[in-house]
Amino acid sequence: MKIERDTRLDALKAISIIFVLIWHLRPISFFVNNDTHVMIVVIARIVRDLELQLSLLAVPLFFLVSLYLFFIKKPDREYLKIRLIKLFKLFTFWSIFHNIFLFTVTREVPDFSWDIITGLKPSLPFAGDSVFYFLFNLMVLTIISFLFFQIKSDKFIKLLSFVTIIFSLLYFETVGIANSSIPYHWLSNFIVYIPIAFYIANYSDKILKFRFYYLVAYILFSLHDIYLRIYGYNQSIYGRISIVCGALTLFCYVYTLKIPENWYIQKLSQYSLGLFAIHKYWQSLLFLLVQHYQISLLPSLVPLNIMFPLMGALVVLLTIVSIYLLKSTSLKQFIG
């Protein structure tokens, strides 16, 4: 029996994983120094701002889609149990694989810490922290969402949602204005998406009709972020009002579209977990091999580091090949 897929949610997941790959692989990267032409500096700055304002919508959007799907299921305890077991299996498998991979590459055993328990550490050479903090946070958010769903009073849900959203936004803005930042893996970055997902799932018409205003807010707060960056302010990765507005805007606009079935979108969505989980290992291995090389395209005119797009394309290709091979084995449950 063919399972009916929601093409809108497939599109959102596809967009999210593309943003993840762009953020991690940075296919457009310039060499910038004191002698770089001002036009190149401006272009490099625009590219970086787009990465920070667009690509970083990926993880919040993944959370928003996941929590939306959870709420439309009208979850009971049995569904919660099934969901948590699945997430725990994914988290455990990839955490074990991550540590085995790291030991194989570095021959080092990391010191035990809370960051290892939550899936943030250990870090990969040239690829940074582990991405599996996402699965740990999703388990916690799922439990909180279930408790939220058990509230029977509409008035209390409205009050709690209002307080959660306003407090989160004020918290994000206060931290930013104070020239500080919220660690990107902290759960406090993502609690705000619980009431947002709940209201989209239960009152979609009322939420979706204001999408233009979310877009305006996203643009204005993005300009606010850029202004602060120009003056050297520290900024949170995910704990910014612009990121919340951006994720909500993208969700609402895509969700109102009539999207025909598309094989590429469907596969990106179906194997978004595999792409998310595997790409950093190939990134780490390949950059270990080429760490001493820098290749510029027409260095006297365009100081563009072509090593990044070349490596990025190879990382994506090898990740896709890995998924293709794994999907024919018993490990397919861990990639999609």
Automatic annotation (TrEMBL):
Membrane-spanning ranges: 12-32, 52-72, 84-105, 131-149, 156-172, 184-200, 212-231, 237-256, 268-290, 302-326
The record's InterPro entries line, in alphabetical order, gives: Acyl_transf_3_dom (IPR002656)
Q: Which GO terms describe its cellular component?
A: plasma membrane
**Secretion signal, residue range per the UniProt entry:** none
- Domain called Acyltransferase: residue spans: 8-325
Q: What topology does the record note for this protein and the membrane?
A: Multi-pass membrane protein
State one molecular function term (GO): O-acetyltransferase activity
Biological process according to GO: enterobacterial common antigen biosynthetic process
Task: Provide the alphabetized UniProt keywords.
Answer: Cell membrane, Membrane, Transmembrane, Transmembrane helix
State its location(s): Cell membrane
Q: Which PANTHER family match?
A: O-ACETYLTRANSFERASE WECH (PTHR40074)
Q: Would you identify the family this protein belongs to, as annotated?
A: Belongs to the acyltransferase 3 family.
* Protein name per its UniProtKB record: Acyltransferase 3 domain-containing protein
Taxonomy of origin reads: Bacteria, Bacillati, Cyanobacteriota, Cyanophyceae, Nostocales
